[in-house]
């Protein structure tokens, strides 16, 4: 078939990236905004050797799980992919994606995947958002699979604190390229981060209680008003989070991540715990009073400064700045416990090999990508670890993104 042709396709599954999967003339067809079981009229926009990609023109046979998306930008803005799916269906799809990725990429067909831990109210959860500024100065998000900016009038993912900031902002600064907002949901701290490609410092008039930070082209965060950080509380512990430091965007679900790691590692009071890719110290510091010693490893200097500040009241915690692959060979064992929270790409092969050599008895792997998780779990199981539990956590409702906590144990040989 030719590009721009119309075809009727029945979709049977969803991909790791959230698109519907169907078949046409012996090829796989990918299309967004469809659900398993739906038949749709599709306009073909890409035809490769083994697959095609299409745009849905009309849903011919809707799924009973299809709902009306509340957001007027859905389908154009690239921020959400699944507002057209009832929330229970979203959770079921995410569980199936994790199972499929572990089986296909990890060889773990019988992996103990649990039902996804969802939210009671799967909206208004984001504590951090980044807007792009369009040529007219309007705030927006990038369109799906594009660099085009979609100006935003509403967003149902923003926490009310961030909605209040957006409503209060009056921006007139041609040099502004991106605008980030952060909030401490349990503390009420607010931050506005202004990113520019120029070196000209902005002039501000502010009448609401928020810190303002400027990120010029040099990348150095400069405090304009208030602090260059916010504070958030997780599990009863306060964390400083600087403007450029990573922190989970869903505070309520982050509480569950910490709980799952604590329960899974089963500390008894005297172990050495490695907190790898530790960021501002969320997991290691939450466990510090339950173990003998914590070593956190983080490559970002800014996040590590936050972690050191966050550990000021703890005498048994130390932090190492650098790559995990470089740090692990310097660890003097034995290591009983470890938690890893790597980027989307997973654990680097060198770091994974070094971790396997250290052989922590219990390991918690916090993943934001089921494909890289499957690859790394395959290596860990091959090295003698037993996969005890895989618990998906819905950190990102209305999107295809999936957070997962996998728990592993290595028994003495």
Description:
This protein has eight helices and 21 strands. Helix 1 (87-106) crosses helix 8 (370-382). It has three domains: 6-66, Nucleic acid-binding proteins (OB fold (Dihydrolipoamide Acetyltransferase, E2P), Beta Barrel); 92-120 and 250-409, Rossmann fold, CATH 3.40.50.150; 128-232, OB fold (Dihydrolipoamide Acetyltransferase, E2P). The N and C termini lie far apart (58 Å). The strands form four sheets. It has a seven-stranded mixed sheet with strand order 8-7-6-9-10-11-12, covered by helices on one side. Strands 17-16-15-18-19-21-20 form a seven-stranded mixed sheet, sandwiched between helices. The chain is 21% helix and 31% strand. Strand 9 (176-183) and strand 10 form a beta hairpin.
Count the E strands: 21
User: What's the arrangement of strands in the largest beta sheet?
Assistant: 8-7-6-9-10-11-12
**What's the architecture of the largest domain, going by CATH?**
3-Layer(aba) Sandwich
Q: Report the structural category.
A: alpha/beta
Please, what is the average pLDDT? 94
DSSP strand content: 25-35%
CATH topology assignment of the largest domain: Rossmann fold
Q: Supply the CATH superfamily name of the largest domain.
A: Vaccinia Virus protein VP39
Low-confidence stretches: none
């Amino acid at each position: 078939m030719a590009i721009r042709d119309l075809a009727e396709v029945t979709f049977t599954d969803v991909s790791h990236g959230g698109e519907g999967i169907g078949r046409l003339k012996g090829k796989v067809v990918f299309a967004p905004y469809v659900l398993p079981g739906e038949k749709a009229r599709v306009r073909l926009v890409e035809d490769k050797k083994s697959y095609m990609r299409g745009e849905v023109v009309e849903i011919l046979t809707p799924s009973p799980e299809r709902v009306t998306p509340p957001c007027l930008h859905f389908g154009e803005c690239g921020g959400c992919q699944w507002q057209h799916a009832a929330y229970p269906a979203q959770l079921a799809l995410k569980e199936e994606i994790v199972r499929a990725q572990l089986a296909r990429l990890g060889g773990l067909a019988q992996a103990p995947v649990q039902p996804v831990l969802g939210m009671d109210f799967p909206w208004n959860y984001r504590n951090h958002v980044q807007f792009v500024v369009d040529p007219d100065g309007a705030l927006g998000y990038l369109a799906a699979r594009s660099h085009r900016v979609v100006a935003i009038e509403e967003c149902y993912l923003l926490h009310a604190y961030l909605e209040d900031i957006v409503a209060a902002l009056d921006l007139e600064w041609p040099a502004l390229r991106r605008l980030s907002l952060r909030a401490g949901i349990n503390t009420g701290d607010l931050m506005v981060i202004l990113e520019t490609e120029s070196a000209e410092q902005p002039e501000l008039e502010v009448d609401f209680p928020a810190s303002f930070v400027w990120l010029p082209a040099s990348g150095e965060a400069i405090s304009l008003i208030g602090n260059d950080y916010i504070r958030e509380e997780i599990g009863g512990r306060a964390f400083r989070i600087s403007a450029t430091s990573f922190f989970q965007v869903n505070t309520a679900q982050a509480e569950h991540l910490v709980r799952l790691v604590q329960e899974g590692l089963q500390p008894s009071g005297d172990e050495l715990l490695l907190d790898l890719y530790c960021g501002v110290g969320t997991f290691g510091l939450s466990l510090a009073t339950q173990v003998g010693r914590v070593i956190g490893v983080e490559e970002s200097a800014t996040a590590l400064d936050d972690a050191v500040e966050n550990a000021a009241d703890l005498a048994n915690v130390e932090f190492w700045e650098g790559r995990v692959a470089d740090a692990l060979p310097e660890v003097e064992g034995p290591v009983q416990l470890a938690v890893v929270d790597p980027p989307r790409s997973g654990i680097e092969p060198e770091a994974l090999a070094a971790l396997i050599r250290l052989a922590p008895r219990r390991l918690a792997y916090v993943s934001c990508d089921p494909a890289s998780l499957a690859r790394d779990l395959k290596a860990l199981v091959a090295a003698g670890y037993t996969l005890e539990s895989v618990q998906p956590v819905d950190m990102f409702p209305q999107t295809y993104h999936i957070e997962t906590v996998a728990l592993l144990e290595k028994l003495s040989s």
